[in-house]
Amino acid sequence: MTALAHSGAHGAGDRAVGDHTADEPTLPPLATWLPVEPCPQVTPPGPVLAPYLGLVSAVLCALGGGWLLLAPYALDYRHGAERTPRTTEIDLGTGAAVVALAIVSALLFAMSLARRLRGPEAVEREAEREPVAGPEFGADPLPIDGEAEPSVLVRETAAPETVAPGKAVPQTVVPEPAESAGARESAPESAPEPPADPGSALRDLLTPLVAALAADLKSRSDHPEGSGPR
Amino acid sequence: MTPLPPPAAPSPRTPVAALVGLALLGILGGWLIAAPFALGDQPRGAAWSAATRTDVVTGAALAGTAVLGLLGYLAAAVAWLARYGR
Q1: Among A68, A79, A90, A203, which residue is least crowded by beta carbons within 10 Å?
Q2: Of A114, A134, A122, which is closest to residue B9 (Cα–Cα)?
Q3: Is residue B72 one of the residues assigned to a domain?
Q4: Smallest Cα–Cα separation from A18: which of A230, A225, A226, A218?
């Protein structure tokens, strides 16, 4: 009962498909089903809070050092004595050292903060300048920017060797309409795919399913309703 | 098919010299607190002079600010590494 209702519900749609193309089922292009463009990875922000806290602390210490330089005169440590007391000398010397150290630290923290606020590219360039330990002996080499992984290279280069030049490369077993096939031929010239396409695995996974669906639709269009296998 | 690694941010260079300067500021604050008593300018048991009060208060403020700055830097760096580090 359910099978009859199912075939009856899809009967009109099957006739429409059969009227459109008698021998080929109409399916939307595979590129419209699957995500072709990889999801953009958002670069996380740099650590700007840490140098900001250091900068604030250094500026506050510089203000404290300035107060140490002014305190002997503001509070009148001499009390009219002819000779400057030792506490005044200690305060002046320590205050000068504190001010100098705080200013240098504040400048260094400010430079670090500005470098991190400049963007992740500057931080990456900075990290590239530092020596990085290479991979261990026998380990797989790291992929270089602009190059694809070896598995991707094998997958991309294996297909053109078996196909004569000038013909379209059959990437899937799904029969497609002429307009979608032409669009796929012109697609690599206009927008080449990235070397490491994360959607290729999904495409490989869904290709047999789409092929089975296409074969099912083709068998339905070849055998009208009621004469097909039950 | 191995899954794609999560996005990681490059770790920037740590301003070691600035952190050392902040630590030296904390040491100078401790010296300011101890100087009146260590050098004998403040007699034991006597009322504190204006210079002693100024040195102790300013030294405590300096040491506290420097230590808080160092701890804040450490906490912020550890929090960033826990969230975005490799």
Answers
A1: A79
A2: A122
A3: yes
A4: A218
The predicted complex's ipTM stands at: 0.86
Residue B1 lies in a domain: no
Q: Hey, what are B33's tokens? A: 């607190």
Q: Which residue has the higher pLDDT, A156 or B55?
A: B55
Instruction: State how far residue B47 is from chain A, nearest Cα, in angstroms.
Output: 15
Q: Evaluate whether residue B22 is within a structural domain.
A: yes
Please answer whether residues A175 and A24 qualify as being in contact, where contact means their C-beta atoms are separated by less than 8 angstroms.
yes
Domain carrying residue B69 = 17-40+49-84
CB A115 within 8 A of CB A123: yes
Q: List CB contacts (< 8 A) between B28 and chain A.
A: 94, 97-98, 101
Q: Give the pLDDT mean for A207-221.
A: 89
- Is B7 a domain residue? no
pTM for the full predicted model: 0.52
Distances from the Cα of B41 to the Cαs of A148, B44, B46, B48, in angstroms? 74, 9, 11, 10
